[in-house]
Amino acid sequence: MSGLRETKKRKTRQAIMDAAIKLFSEKGFKNTSVDELAKTAGVGKSTIYGYFHTKNEIFLAFCEDQIDFVFSDLAKKRDPDAPLKEQLFTLFMGQFRYVTKNYDFGRILSREMVFPKELTIEKSNDISERYLSALGEILTRAISRNELRDDLELLYISGHFYALYIIVLSAWYERRFQSEQEIEQALQKLLSQAMEGLSPSSRKQDMV
Amino acid sequence: MSGLRETKKRKTRQAIMDAAIKLFSEKGFKNTSVDELAKTAGVGKSTIYGYFHTKNEIFLAFCEDQIDFVFSDLAKKRDPDAPLKEQLFTLFMGQFRYVTKNYDFGRILSREMVFPKELTIEKSNDISERYLSALGEILTRAISRNELRDDLELLYISGHFYALYIIVLSAWYERRFQSEQEIEQALQKLLSQAMEGLSPSSRKQDMV
DNA sequence: CTAAAATTGCGACCATAGTCGACTTTTTAC
DNA sequence: GTAAAAAGTCGACTATGGTCGCAATTTTAG
Question: pTM of the entire structure?
Answer without folding.
Answer: 0.91
